Structures are given as structure tokens and as C-alpha cells.
Amino acid sequence: MIDPRQQAAETLQDILEKHCFFSEIKNISSPAEQQNTAFLNMLVLTALRRLVFLQKVISTFAAKKLPAKHAFARYALILAAAEILFLDTPDYAVLNSYVNLIKKQNDKYVAGFANAVLRKIAAAKEELLKADNGIFFPDGFRKLLEKDYGEKQTALIEAASLNEPPLDLTIKENAAEWAKKLNGILLPNGSVRLENNGKIEKLPGYKEGEWWVQDFSASLAAKTISAPAGKKILDLCAAPGGKTAQLLAAGAEVVSLDISEERLKRLAENIRRLNLPAPRIICADAAKYLEETSDRYDAVLLDAPCSATGTLRRHPEIVHIKNTRDIEKMAGLQKEILNRTTWVLRPGGELTYCTCSIAKEEGERQITAFLQNNSEFRLFPLSPNDFSGTMPAEIFTAEGFIRTFPYHLQSYGGADSFFIAKMQRTK
Ligand SMILES: C[S@@+](CC[C@H](N)C(=O)[O-])C[C@H]1O[C@@H](n2cnc3c(N)ncnc32)[C@H](O)[C@@H]1O
Predict the structure, then answer these.
(1) The CATH fold of domain 4-131
(2) Which of 168, 237, 261, 311 to mutate to test the pocket of ligand 1 (most atoms within 8 A of CB)?
(3) Backbone angles phi, psi at 29, to 5 degrees
(4) 144 CB contacts (<8 Å, ≥6 apart)?
(5) CA distances from residue 12 to 21, 77, 328, 371 in whole angstroms, order as listed
(6) Cα distance between residue 314 and residue 165, in whole Å
């Protein structure tokens, strides 16, 4: 069985050097290893959230930077510092475990160096924590956000993003009852919010298909489509099916399209578990389908592929691995798909565009350009009146978009950053 600390160091190295998502490399196979999953997750996520601070602390106490050939020791030091400063492991246990691992992976001289650095960090723990001012974003990511939001708002986003996000569930029926049964809080949109711990499969109502996991912000997009019952709706980029499930539950005739066969399998499984009518499933590149099809729709919901930067609370690796080029690349793809949706919408048909990106390039600017270039579409300004329940005014922009931020819904524990625009074909 691999030591979870060793696995965490290798995982951290892969994320930061190969620029991949944590979820792409989580590969815990045997049941014995699964027992370590929660610890591994906590370790890697804490290190990613506090990476900038931890690296600063290590450089204060280390006389030299470890060369690339000792990469394992570099990442092990970051994790050890994270355990000493932010997790409850006793210092002696942290030192013991990591120094032994480094001795095995590198050599006894590097282990001796790590031992000396970690002892100093443990001794200075209290002063270090007093000096911690909650830095999460590295300079590059902070600048990227400041271009769209300025310094003050970026600081608000950073502070609200450090906390571990809760778990939101969309409930099929009787949300208030399920909030009680699950010991959760009922959110203004009717979602139920739980503390994010434990296996969701073990929660009441999972097997019976009474609810599915979907963040508050993400749940708003499908609700923008007016009177969905009986309408023929194209859910573009649909997997794993959160929005398809909402549309089916509302009585729509749904076509769910996604490029990933694997993810569509999960969509089909999810819809089966929820005992909802099966949608028509199409595995295709959205742009190609839109170009070739003669199908016509009453509404299109485009949850466009994006940089996912709005989910930085859940995926803290994003702030270390995403940059302006990633955003520009995704914005190009979104523009291509978005423009082609115009070919399949009936006159009067509704088009809802959304992304889980925090960048205006993938949201506000994308839609402003679309409306300028497609005069047969008008913006349908969204307001709290378009939703049941008491929606917080803070999530609606002056133009009529929905733009959520991690500091929204603060008293409930925040929200992912999401962008939603609703348009209508006038001709
Ligand atoms: C944000 S996820 C969608 C989440 C989904 N709408 C939901 O509510 O559960 C984005 C999806 O876009 C799909 N995708 C990426 N590029 C695509 C393309 N060119 N055509 C169709 N789907 C694409 C991905 O496979 C992924 O499942």
C-alpha cells in the first residue's frame, strides 16, 4: 500500500508541473488505499490553497532551493509545512513521516536538510500563523482577475475562496422536507446545502434518486428557460447531466449532447438513478452537430466548455495552472459554438448561455459581442422576478446577467462563480 503522504507529494508534483486537474490524477484503486483518500484529499487541497504562503515560509527557513533532481523532497516539504501549520497532526509525527519518505526517495543528506527546515517551521509555528494574511492567489492569477475586477473586488474574491466549499443538492420534490432529513440548510433557490464531508452515496435519498449534486450557481441556468414543460430543448455540453435532470424534471423533451462518451455514460446513469425519463443522447462535437443537423428547437441551453476558473474554491489548483492563454483559447471555442446555436433555434426560441468561468472574456464580453453580431437576438434581462423563491439581488448585474462570486450568499457559505445570460430569437 502506498503511503498517502508519498502519493500526495507525487500528486502535487503532477498537478503543478503537468498542469492537470487533481480529479484527473486521483486514481486510488484498492479498497485499502481508499481508506486514505480523505487524508490525501485534505493534504493536497490544503497545500494548493496555501501554496503561496507555504513556499514563502519554506524559503525563509531554507538556506538554498532544492535542485530539480530532488523534486520529491520539494513537494514533500510543502506538504509537511502544510500539516504542521494548518492540520492537526503532531509535529513529531509530521517530521518523522516526511523525513523517512525523503530518505527513501532522495538521500540522507536531503532528508537531513528537510529535517532542519521542518524543525525551524515547527518552532516558529505561532509567529508564522500570526503573520499569515490569507494569500491564496499567485501573482499571475491575481493580475488576471484584477484586469476584470480591480484590486478591491479581487481581494474579496480571494478571501472568500479560501474556505472549503459546502455541498449543494438539487432536490426533485419537497426541498424543505429534504433539508430537514439531510440536516442541511434550504437555500433561496430551493437547493439544500450540506457540510461537505463523507460519501454522498451514503446519504438518505441518494439510492432512491431524490436529489443530485449541483452547486447553487450552476442550478440557476436551467431555471431561466420559461415554461419548459413540453418544449423541445437542446442541452449542449450536457454531461454529467445536472441541467438535463432539471429540464427533464420540469417536463421538457430533452436532447443531451456532449463530446465525451465517458461523461455521457455518467449522464445516462445519473438520469436512471433519478428515475427521470431518458433524454435523447447525442455524442458529438457541438459545433459540428449544429452545422449538420436539421433538428430545430424551442430552446437551447449552452453550458459552454470553459476555463472552469469559477470553481476555484473546489479546485484550488486552478489558480496555479490556468492563465490568460487558457481563457482566450476557451473563449474562441465558446464563440464558435454560440454562433452556431442560432441555426437550430425556432423564431421566438430562447438561448441560455452559461459558463463556470470567472473571466469576463468567457461571460460578459462573449455575450456583448454575440449580441452585436447577431441582431436577430435580444438580451432577456434576468431579475429576481424570473425565479421562484427570494433570490438575492447581488447576483444580478445592471445589464441583466447573472454573475455570482464566491463572496455571494456569504451567510450560507458562499457560491461558485458562474455567468448566465438569457437571449431570445426575435425573427
Ligand atoms: C461544464 S461541463 C458541463 C456540465 C453539464 N452541463 C451539467 O450541468 O452537468 C462541460 C462539458 O462540455 C463538454 N464539451 C467540451 N467540448 C465540447 C464540444 N466541443 N462539444 C460538445 N461538448 C463539449 C465536456 O465533455 C463537458 O462534459
Answers:
(1) N-utilizing Substance Protein B Homolog; Chain A (1.10.940)
(2) 237
(3) -95, -60
(4) 323, 324, 327, 359
(5) 10, 11, 26, 42
(6) 6
Residue 378's pLDDT is 97
| Residue 40 binned pLDDT confidence (cut-offs 50, 70, 90) | very high
Domains 4-131 and 220-425 share a fold: no
Classify residue 396 by its DSSP letter.
B
What would the pLDDT profile of 275-326 be if each residue is shown by its tens digit? 999 999 999 999 999 999 999 999 999 999 999 999 999 999 999 999 999 9
The domain limits of the chain are: 4-131, 166-214, 220-425
pTM strictly above 0.90: yes
Determine the pLDDT at residue 427. 74
User: Using CA atoms, how far apart are residues 222 and 227, in angstroms rounded to an integer?
Assistant: 11
Residue 303 CA to ligand 1 centre (angstroms): 7
Q: What is the CATH number of domain 220-425?
A: 3.40.50.150
The CA 355 to ligand 1 mean position distance, Å, reads: 10
Give me 6's grid cell: 508519498
Cβ(54)–Cβ(86) below 8 Å = no
CA 210-211-215 angle, 5° bins: 170
